[in-house]
Amino acid sequence: MVNVSIEPISVLSMYPTPPPADDPAQWIICEHCDSLYEAQTLKKGESAYCLRCAAVLDRGHRMSIEQLLALSIAAGILFIFANVFPVISISMKGLYNEVTLWGSVEALAQGQITLIALVAGLAIILAPALQIALLFWVLVHAHRNEIAPGFKTCMRTLEHLRPWSMLEVCLLGILVAIIKLSGMLDVHPGVGLWAMAMLMVLIVLIAGKDIRRLWDELGVQPE
Amino acid sequence: MNGIPFARERNVTLCHVCGYVCPDDTHVCPRCESAVHTRKPNSMARTWAFLIAGLIFYIPANTLPVMFTTLLGSASENTIMSGVIEFAEGGSWDIAILIFIASVLVPCIKFLVLGMLLYTCQRRSQWAMRERSRLYRFIELIGYWSMLDVLVVALVAALVQFRGLSTIEPRLGILFFGLVVVMTMFAAMSFDPRLIWDAEVEDV
What we know:
The structure holds two protein chains of two kinds.
Chain A lengths: L2 E3 L3 H4 L14 E3 L6 E3 L8 E3 L6 E4 L5 H20 L3 E5 L2 E5 L1 H8 L5 H30 L7 H11 L5 H16 L3 E4 L1 H16 L6 H5 L6
Parallel strand pairs in A: 1-4
Antiparallel strand pairs in A: 2-3, 4-5, 6-7, 6-8
Helix pairs in contact in A: 2-4, 2-7, 3-4, 4-5, 6-7
Chain B lengths: L11 E3 L6 E3 L19 H21 L3 E5 L2 E5 L1 H10 L3 H30 L6 H14 L5 H12 L1 E2 L3 E5 L1 H19 L3 H5 L6
Antiparallel strand pairs in B: 1-2, 3-4, 3-6, 5-6
């Protein structure tokens, strides 16, 4: 990975006058320390870091819109597999039981602790499902160079969902549960687990901040 | 410091949702229509509130049992720590350490770091600003891994349902533990890391 530091505006500025405030395409602001830089075009694999606080300012795009769309379709299929098939099954003295993601959320929804079932349901089912659906919606239109109906709402929702999508944690949770139970009974990983593992990789690839590029690439005009 | 201008000095502010550079007198991003603030509103007070709420929930999360197990007639209740100890005594050191990190170390680090950041920002300290920024990004990154225990209990309780032979049920502790995670996530989200750097500018 090539690291590119963006020059501070004051160093780069060859402008006769300060650049106009209504030309946001030229500027980039660090969200962690409010430093202002002139935006530069980054190549694939390059990242720009803030000189003041060392946060990532911008990354070059790794994938094209087509690739992102293809991966979001794949993620949709894997999501269905991960939810329909059991993630773990156990057997003990001739008895057999298996659990799906929904089943594990339901197990929390009893009695006084129902509230936590809502959080778990959001984290492992609802948030990833919405992310995949919204990404597919905006990308399928972006692919045809159109702005999807409801684009702004979709993009805002994607931003707010990101911290609550916890498939990585869920995958580790499944592995810990398997080891925890393997001491007292026979545990078998299910088809859902493999789908989960692949889905997690895809979500990391498609659901990051990179999707913000659509604002610029589709030329959404500020009002 | 090193001549990099602050966005505030050029009268612009960042939209956190779409990354648009907005004029700083707007309250709604012209491009994505979400609310825009020069600094997150009431950042300090909100972060303190979520942090203290999280700390209060952390007490029942550790003292109340998170799981109730009946195995071939013998019943037992586990708290988070007793679960870790059980793993360690059973020889699974790796899993014990993993759960200990996710359920004990991560929330404690979050409490300490957020408390330190709030305290130093209130005192307008200029100490180690770059490192404090890094710490903030670090706790933002590790925060949600604490949900691990909640999901493990959910999976295990859903699986082990052999009436008469063996059952596992979730208990109240797991609710409080989940709330600790949610509260600390809200606390980290409502803290504005730009406050760390505001100490450099006199007239904020």
